Amino acid sequence: MLFHQVFYNIESINVSGSCRSENTISNILIHFEKIKSGSKIDNSILYIPKNNINNPFYTLHNNLSPFVTKSNLVKEEFEPRIIIKNPNGEEGKSFNFGSIKLDSSVNGVFTIENRGTIDLNITEMGFVDSTGAFSLVTKDITPIAPNGGSATFTITFNPTSPGNHKAIFELKSNAPNSPVCSIMLSGFGERVFFPEIELIDHKSRNIASGGTVHIDNVSIGDSIEYTFTIENTGQGELFLTGDTLVKILGENADEFGLKDPPDQQISPLTGNTSFQILFAPQSEGVKQISVSIPNDDTDESPFTFFIKGTGINSCKDNIQMPDAFTPHSSKTINDSYCAVIEGKIVSFEMKIFNRSNQQVFQSTEVMPCWDGMCEGKKAPSGPYVYKIKYKCQENNSPISLTGSLLLLNLE
After folding, report:
1. In angstroms, rounded to a whole number, what is the distance separating the alpha carbons of residues 380 and 374?
2. Beta bridge partners of 35
3. pLDDT value at position 286?
4. pTM of the predicted model, to two decimals?
Protein backbone atom coordinates (compact mmCIF):
# COMPACT_ATOMS: atom_id res chain seq x y z
CA MET A 1 0.00 0.00 0.00
CA LEU A 2 1.31 3.47 -0.90
CA PHE A 3 1.24 6.28 1.65
CA HIS A 4 2.04 9.69 0.16
CA GLN A 5 4.28 7.95 -2.40
CA VAL A 6 6.87 7.09 0.31
CA PHE A 7 8.16 3.53 0.56
CA TYR A 8 9.81 1.62 3.42
CA ASN A 9 11.61 -1.61 4.02
CA ILE A 10 11.02 -3.50 7.24
CA GLU A 11 14.38 -3.42 8.98
CA SER A 12 13.42 -5.22 12.24
CA ILE A 13 10.41 -6.38 14.21
CA ASN A 14 10.21 -6.68 17.96
CA VAL A 15 7.18 -8.49 19.38
CA SER A 16 6.63 -7.80 23.08
CA GLY A 17 4.47 -9.99 25.29
CA SER A 18 3.76 -13.70 25.26
CA CYS A 19 0.84 -15.96 24.54
CA ARG A 20 -2.17 -14.49 26.17
CA SER A 21 -5.76 -15.31 26.54
CA GLU A 22 -8.32 -14.16 24.05
CA ASN A 23 -9.29 -10.48 24.02
CA THR A 24 -5.85 -9.40 25.22
CA ILE A 25 -3.44 -7.21 23.24
CA SER A 26 0.17 -7.84 22.33
CA ASN A 27 2.32 -4.82 21.41
CA ILE A 28 4.34 -5.20 18.19
CA LEU A 29 7.13 -2.67 17.42
CA ILE A 30 8.14 -2.50 13.72
CA HIS A 31 11.07 -0.35 12.51
CA PHE A 32 11.02 0.94 8.88
CA GLU A 33 13.84 2.06 6.65
CA LYS A 34 12.93 4.68 4.00
CA ILE A 35 13.54 3.74 0.35
CA LYS A 36 14.73 6.21 -2.29
CA SER A 37 12.62 6.95 -5.36
CA GLY A 38 13.09 4.36 -8.09
CA SER A 39 14.33 1.58 -5.76
CA LYS A 40 12.94 -1.92 -5.78
CA ILE A 41 10.13 -2.41 -3.28
CA ASP A 42 9.38 -5.62 -1.42
CA ASN A 43 5.61 -5.65 -0.96
CA SER A 44 4.97 -8.18 1.86
CA ILE A 45 1.86 -9.57 3.39
CA LEU A 46 2.66 -10.66 6.96
CA TYR A 47 0.57 -12.84 9.20
CA ILE A 48 0.65 -13.67 12.94
CA PRO A 49 -0.64 -17.18 13.62
CA LYS A 50 -2.89 -18.01 16.53
CA ASN A 51 -4.40 -21.15 17.97
CA ASN A 52 -7.74 -20.94 16.28
CA ILE A 53 -8.62 -23.37 13.52
CA ASN A 54 -11.47 -21.26 12.18
CA ASN A 55 -9.49 -17.98 12.28
CA PRO A 56 -5.83 -18.96 12.38
CA PHE A 57 -4.32 -15.43 11.92
CA TYR A 58 -4.51 -12.11 13.68
CA THR A 59 -5.35 -9.16 11.44
CA LEU A 60 -3.02 -6.15 11.55
CA HIS A 61 -4.07 -2.67 10.42
CA ASN A 62 -1.07 -2.35 8.00
CA ASN A 63 -1.18 -6.01 6.95
CA LEU A 64 2.28 -6.49 8.41
CA SER A 65 3.48 -9.60 10.26
CA PRO A 66 6.83 -11.15 11.09
CA PHE A 67 6.00 -14.06 8.80
CA VAL A 68 6.33 -13.32 5.06
CA THR A 69 4.12 -15.52 2.92
CA LYS A 70 4.41 -13.72 -0.47
CA SER A 71 6.95 -11.29 -1.99
CA ASN A 72 6.95 -9.39 -5.32
CA LEU A 73 9.67 -7.06 -6.67
CA VAL A 74 8.24 -3.87 -8.19
CA LYS A 75 10.05 -0.94 -9.82
CA GLU A 76 8.28 2.37 -9.28
CA GLU A 77 9.54 5.30 -11.45
CA PHE A 78 9.00 8.92 -10.42
CA GLU A 79 9.22 10.83 -13.71
CA PRO A 80 6.98 12.36 -16.37
CA ARG A 81 6.23 10.62 -19.67
CA ILE A 82 5.13 12.67 -22.69
CA ILE A 83 2.73 11.56 -25.40
CA ILE A 84 1.63 13.88 -28.25
CA LYS A 85 -1.54 13.34 -30.28
CA ASN A 86 -2.33 15.15 -33.51
CA PRO A 87 -5.69 16.84 -34.27
CA ASN A 88 -7.04 13.45 -35.36
CA GLY A 89 -6.29 12.01 -31.92
CA GLU A 90 -3.50 9.83 -33.26
CA GLU A 91 0.01 9.44 -31.91
CA GLY A 92 2.61 10.25 -34.54
CA LYS A 93 5.47 12.48 -35.61
CA SER A 94 3.79 14.13 -38.62
CA PHE A 95 0.56 15.86 -39.59
CA ASN A 96 -0.75 17.12 -42.93
CA PHE A 97 -3.17 20.07 -42.84
CA GLY A 98 -4.32 19.22 -46.36
CA SER A 99 -5.06 21.67 -49.18
CA ILE A 100 -6.60 25.07 -48.46
CA LYS A 101 -7.08 28.21 -50.53
CA LEU A 102 -4.52 31.00 -50.33
CA ASP A 103 -5.03 33.62 -47.62
CA SER A 104 -7.39 31.35 -45.70
CA SER A 105 -6.43 29.40 -42.58
CA VAL A 106 -7.12 26.23 -40.66
CA ASN A 107 -6.29 25.39 -37.03
CA GLY A 108 -4.94 22.12 -35.72
CA VAL A 109 -5.28 21.32 -32.01
CA PHE A 110 -2.57 19.02 -30.65
CA THR A 111 -2.80 17.29 -27.29
CA ILE A 112 0.03 16.64 -24.85
CA GLU A 113 -0.55 13.83 -22.34
CA ASN A 114 1.51 13.06 -19.24
CA ARG A 115 1.47 9.33 -18.52
CA GLY A 116 4.17 9.61 -15.90
CA THR A 117 4.03 9.94 -12.12
CA ILE A 118 5.14 13.55 -11.62
CA ASP A 119 4.40 16.88 -13.33
CA LEU A 120 5.41 17.32 -16.96
CA ASN A 121 6.97 20.72 -17.73
CA ILE A 122 7.21 22.05 -21.30
CA THR A 123 10.40 24.12 -21.30
CA GLU A 124 10.43 25.29 -24.92
CA MET A 125 8.29 25.02 -28.04
CA GLY A 126 8.50 26.55 -31.51
CA PHE A 127 9.45 26.14 -35.17
CA VAL A 128 13.00 25.21 -36.11
CA ASP A 129 12.30 25.15 -39.87
CA SER A 130 9.29 26.64 -41.64
CA THR A 131 8.15 28.20 -44.93
CA GLY A 132 6.32 30.84 -42.89
CA ALA A 133 2.86 29.40 -43.52
CA PHE A 134 2.56 27.95 -40.00
CA SER A 135 2.14 29.80 -36.71
CA LEU A 136 1.78 28.82 -33.05
CA VAL A 137 -1.36 30.11 -31.36
CA THR A 138 -0.82 28.65 -27.87
CA LYS A 139 2.56 29.63 -26.45
CA ASP A 140 2.34 28.95 -22.72
CA ILE A 141 1.36 25.60 -21.24
CA THR A 142 1.16 25.19 -17.47
CA PRO A 143 2.72 22.08 -15.86
CA ILE A 144 0.75 19.01 -16.88
CA ALA A 145 -0.40 16.80 -14.03
CA PRO A 146 0.73 13.15 -13.84
CA ASN A 147 -1.25 9.97 -14.43
CA GLY A 148 -3.13 11.06 -17.55
CA GLY A 149 -3.11 14.86 -17.24
CA SER A 150 -3.24 16.73 -20.55
CA ALA A 151 -2.96 20.13 -22.21
CA THR A 152 -3.43 21.40 -25.76
CA PHE A 153 -1.70 23.78 -28.14
CA THR A 154 -2.92 25.10 -31.50
CA ILE A 155 -1.01 25.53 -34.77
CA THR A 156 -2.49 27.56 -37.63
CA PHE A 157 -1.80 26.85 -41.30
CA ASN A 158 -2.24 30.07 -43.35
CA PRO A 159 -0.53 29.84 -46.78
CA THR A 160 0.04 33.05 -48.72
CA SER A 161 1.93 31.43 -51.61
CA PRO A 162 0.82 28.44 -53.69
CA GLY A 163 2.30 24.98 -53.55
CA ASN A 164 3.66 22.72 -50.83
CA HIS A 165 4.57 24.11 -47.42
CA LYS A 166 6.53 22.32 -44.71
CA ALA A 167 7.68 23.00 -41.16
CA ILE A 168 9.33 21.25 -38.22
CA PHE A 169 7.83 22.00 -34.81
CA GLU A 170 9.73 21.06 -31.63
CA LEU A 171 8.76 20.71 -27.99
CA LYS A 172 11.31 20.37 -25.21
CA SER A 173 10.34 19.01 -21.79
CA ASN A 174 11.58 17.29 -18.66
CA ALA A 175 10.31 13.90 -19.87
CA PRO A 176 13.19 11.39 -19.99
CA ASN A 177 11.39 9.23 -22.55
CA SER A 178 11.44 12.04 -25.13
CA PRO A 179 13.10 15.29 -24.03
CA VAL A 180 12.78 16.71 -27.57
CA CYS A 181 9.67 15.94 -29.62
CA SER A 182 9.65 16.87 -33.31
CA ILE A 183 6.51 17.09 -35.43
CA MET A 184 6.72 17.29 -39.23
CA LEU A 185 3.99 19.61 -40.52
CA SER A 186 2.86 19.96 -44.13
CA GLY A 187 0.10 21.53 -46.18
CA PHE A 188 -0.72 22.79 -49.66
CA GLY A 189 -1.64 26.34 -50.68
CA GLU A 190 -4.31 26.27 -53.37
CA ARG A 191 -4.70 29.35 -55.53
CA VAL A 192 -8.10 30.78 -56.43
CA PHE A 193 -7.00 33.02 -59.31
CA PHE A 194 -4.19 32.38 -61.76
CA PRO A 195 -1.26 34.56 -62.95
CA GLU A 196 -0.09 35.23 -66.50
CA ILE A 197 3.56 36.11 -67.13
CA GLU A 198 4.63 38.55 -69.84
CA LEU A 199 8.14 39.82 -70.73
CA ILE A 200 9.00 43.25 -72.15
CA ASP A 201 12.52 43.85 -73.54
CA HIS A 202 14.75 46.95 -73.47
CA LYS A 203 13.00 48.38 -76.54
CA SER A 204 9.49 47.93 -75.04
CA ARG A 205 8.76 44.92 -77.23
CA ASN A 206 6.71 41.98 -75.97
CA ILE A 207 8.85 38.83 -76.05
CA ALA A 208 7.19 35.42 -76.21
CA SER A 209 8.57 32.45 -74.34
CA GLY A 210 11.14 30.87 -76.66
CA GLY A 211 11.80 34.15 -78.47
CA THR A 212 15.15 35.85 -79.14
CA VAL A 213 16.26 39.37 -78.20
CA HIS A 214 18.96 40.91 -80.41
CA ILE A 215 21.16 43.42 -78.64
CA ASP A 216 23.86 45.83 -79.80
CA ASN A 217 27.40 45.11 -80.85
CA VAL A 218 29.68 45.77 -77.89
CA SER A 219 33.41 46.38 -77.99
CA ILE A 220 35.65 43.91 -76.23
CA GLY A 221 36.44 45.29 -72.79
CA ASP A 222 33.27 47.39 -72.68
CA SER A 223 29.83 46.45 -71.28
CA ILE A 224 26.22 47.53 -71.73
CA GLU A 225 23.20 46.86 -69.49
CA TYR A 226 19.79 45.95 -70.90
CA THR A 227 16.60 46.25 -68.83
CA PHE A 228 13.84 43.64 -69.03
CA THR A 229 10.43 43.88 -67.35
CA ILE A 230 8.23 41.03 -66.11
CA GLU A 231 4.52 41.82 -66.10
CA ASN A 232 1.64 39.90 -64.54
CA THR A 233 -1.53 40.29 -66.59
CA GLY A 234 -3.41 37.51 -64.77
CA GLN A 235 -5.85 37.78 -61.84
CA GLY A 236 -3.70 35.87 -59.35
CA GLU A 237 -0.37 36.68 -57.71
CA LEU A 238 2.65 35.70 -59.81
CA PHE A 239 5.55 34.10 -57.94
CA LEU A 240 9.05 33.54 -59.28
CA THR A 241 9.84 30.13 -57.81
CA GLY A 242 13.49 29.39 -58.56
CA ASP A 243 16.33 29.42 -56.05
CA THR A 244 17.89 31.76 -58.61
CA LEU A 245 15.07 33.98 -59.84
CA VAL A 246 16.67 34.58 -63.26
CA LYS A 247 19.08 31.94 -64.57
CA ILE A 248 21.64 32.68 -67.30
CA LEU A 249 22.62 29.54 -69.22
CA GLY A 250 24.80 28.63 -72.18
CA GLU A 251 28.48 28.44 -73.20
CA ASN A 252 28.73 32.26 -73.31
CA ALA A 253 27.13 32.72 -69.87
CA ASP A 254 30.40 34.05 -68.42
CA GLU A 255 30.17 37.05 -70.80
CA PHE A 256 26.75 38.03 -69.42
CA GLY A 257 25.61 38.85 -65.91
CA LEU A 258 22.46 39.54 -63.89
CA LYS A 259 22.19 42.91 -62.17
CA ASP A 260 19.40 44.09 -59.87
CA PRO A 261 17.32 40.85 -59.78
CA PRO A 262 13.52 41.12 -59.93
CA ASP A 263 11.04 40.89 -57.07
CA GLN A 264 9.82 37.40 -56.25
CA GLN A 265 6.11 38.28 -55.93
CA ILE A 266 4.25 40.29 -58.59
CA SER A 267 0.76 41.68 -58.07
CA PRO A 268 -2.05 40.71 -60.47
CA LEU A 269 -3.37 42.72 -63.45
CA THR A 270 -0.90 45.64 -63.37
CA GLY A 271 2.05 44.35 -61.32
CA ASN A 272 5.55 44.35 -62.77
CA THR A 273 9.20 44.04 -61.79
CA SER A 274 12.45 44.63 -63.68
CA PHE A 275 15.93 43.18 -63.92
CA GLN A 276 19.08 44.01 -65.89
CA ILE A 277 21.27 41.79 -68.06
CA LEU A 278 24.87 42.94 -68.53
CA PHE A 279 26.71 42.09 -71.76
CA ALA A 280 30.53 42.27 -71.48
CA PRO A 281 32.14 40.36 -74.37
CA GLN A 282 35.62 38.99 -73.81
CA SER A 283 36.34 38.06 -77.40
CA GLU A 284 35.11 38.73 -80.92
CA GLY A 285 32.11 37.00 -82.41
CA VAL A 286 28.44 36.26 -81.87
CA LYS A 287 27.47 35.49 -78.27
CA GLN A 288 24.21 33.83 -77.24
CA ILE A 289 22.66 32.80 -73.92
CA SER A 290 19.33 31.48 -72.76
CA VAL A 291 17.53 33.15 -69.85
CA SER A 292 15.25 31.01 -67.68
CA ILE A 293 12.67 32.41 -65.25
CA PRO A 294 10.98 29.68 -63.13
CA ASN A 295 7.50 30.80 -62.03
CA ASP A 296 4.02 29.53 -61.17
CA ASP A 297 2.29 30.41 -64.44
CA THR A 298 0.45 27.19 -65.28
CA ASP A 299 1.62 27.00 -68.91
CA GLU A 300 4.81 29.10 -69.12
CA SER A 301 7.17 27.81 -66.49
CA PRO A 302 9.98 28.27 -66.85
CA PHE A 303 9.66 31.29 -69.09
CA THR A 304 12.68 31.03 -71.40
CA PHE A 305 14.08 33.42 -73.98
CA PHE A 306 17.39 33.97 -75.77
CA ILE A 307 19.73 36.96 -76.00
CA LYS A 308 22.11 37.33 -78.92
CA GLY A 309 24.84 39.95 -79.23
CA THR A 310 28.23 40.40 -80.88
CA GLY A 311 31.59 41.21 -79.40
CA ILE A 312 33.65 43.44 -81.69
CA ASN A 313 37.29 44.51 -81.64
CA SER A 314 36.93 48.25 -82.05
CA CYS A 315 40.67 48.90 -81.98
CA LYS A 316 41.27 47.30 -85.37
CA ASP A 317 41.22 50.79 -86.89
CA ASN A 318 43.37 52.36 -84.17
CA ILE A 319 46.55 52.07 -86.28
CA GLN A 320 47.09 53.68 -89.65
CA MET A 321 50.22 52.88 -91.70
CA PRO A 322 51.71 55.23 -94.37
CA ASP A 323 52.13 53.94 -97.91
CA ALA A 324 55.64 55.38 -98.40
CA PHE A 325 58.42 57.43 -96.86
CA THR A 326 61.58 59.26 -98.00
CA PRO A 327 64.41 58.78 -95.52
CA HIS A 328 67.62 60.77 -95.52
CA SER A 329 65.94 63.67 -97.30
CA SER A 330 66.16 67.20 -96.02
CA LYS A 331 63.37 68.30 -98.33
CA THR A 332 60.53 66.20 -96.79
CA ILE A 333 59.09 65.70 -93.34
CA ASN A 334 58.24 62.04 -93.98
CA ASP A 335 61.77 60.84 -93.39
CA SER A 336 60.93 57.88 -91.09
CA TYR A 337 58.37 55.12 -91.20
CA CYS A 338 55.99 55.23 -88.16
CA ALA A 339 52.63 53.76 -87.20
CA VAL A 340 49.97 56.42 -86.67
CA ILE A 341 48.17 55.54 -83.41
CA GLU A 342 44.62 56.54 -82.46
CA GLY A 343 43.46 55.51 -79.02
CA LYS A 344 45.24 53.39 -76.43
CA ILE A 345 47.68 50.62 -77.28
CA VAL A 346 48.90 48.27 -74.54
CA SER A 347 51.30 46.20 -76.64
CA PHE A 348 52.96 46.71 -80.02
CA GLU A 349 55.44 44.91 -82.30
CA MET A 350 56.46 45.83 -85.88
CA LYS A 351 58.74 43.97 -88.30
CA ILE A 352 59.73 45.10 -91.79
CA PHE A 353 61.01 42.77 -94.56
CA ASN A 354 62.60 43.38 -97.95
CA ARG A 355 61.67 41.69 -101.21
CA SER A 356 63.85 38.71 -100.28
CA ASN A 357 61.87 38.29 -97.05
CA GLN A 358 64.87 39.34 -95.02
CA GLN A 359 64.06 41.30 -91.85
CA VAL A 360 65.48 44.78 -91.99
CA PHE A 361 63.77 46.33 -88.94
CA GLN A 362 62.10 45.27 -85.68
CA SER A 363 60.64 47.21 -82.75
CA THR A 364 58.49 46.35 -79.73
CA GLU A 365 57.60 49.99 -79.17
CA VAL A 366 55.72 52.45 -81.34
CA MET A 367 58.76 54.68 -81.15
CA PRO A 368 61.45 54.77 -82.49
CA CYS A 369 60.39 54.51 -86.13
CA TRP A 370 62.34 52.94 -89.00
CA ASP A 371 64.84 55.40 -90.32
CA GLY A 372 65.52 53.50 -93.55
CA MET A 373 68.82 52.05 -92.36
CA CYS A 374 69.75 48.36 -92.43
CA GLU A 375 72.91 47.09 -90.76
CA GLY A 376 74.37 50.58 -90.71
CA LYS A 377 73.69 51.25 -94.39
CA LYS A 378 70.92 52.93 -96.30
CA ALA A 379 68.30 50.42 -97.38
CA PRO A 380 67.78 50.48 -101.14
CA SER A 381 64.71 52.08 -102.63
CA GLY A 382 61.86 49.78 -103.41
CA PRO A 383 58.89 47.96 -101.91
CA TYR A 384 58.96 46.50 -98.39
CA VAL A 385 56.46 44.55 -96.28
CA TYR A 386 55.45 45.37 -92.68
CA LYS A 387 53.93 42.98 -90.13
CA ILE A 388 52.40 44.38 -86.95
CA LYS A 389 50.84 42.79 -83.85
CA TYR A 390 49.16 44.92 -81.18
CA LYS A 391 46.53 44.93 -78.43
CA CYS A 392 44.16 47.67 -77.30
CA GLN A 393 43.15 46.02 -73.99
CA GLU A 394 44.97 43.54 -71.79
CA ASN A 395 42.15 40.97 -72.15
CA ASN A 396 41.99 41.31 -75.96
CA SER A 397 43.43 38.88 -78.46
CA PRO A 398 46.34 40.37 -80.45
CA ILE A 399 45.46 42.02 -83.75
CA SER A 400 47.68 41.34 -86.75
CA LEU A 401 48.20 43.74 -89.63
CA THR A 402 50.19 43.14 -92.82
CA GLY A 403 50.81 45.64 -95.58
CA SER A 404 53.32 47.07 -98.04
CA LEU A 405 55.27 50.32 -98.11
CA LEU A 406 57.54 52.06 -100.58
CA LEU A 407 60.96 53.39 -99.58
CA LEU A 408 62.26 56.23 -101.79
CA ASN A 409 65.81 57.51 -101.49
CA LEU A 410 65.69 60.99 -103.04
CA GLU A 411 69.25 61.96 -102.26
Report:
1. 9
2. 7
3. 95
4. 0.44
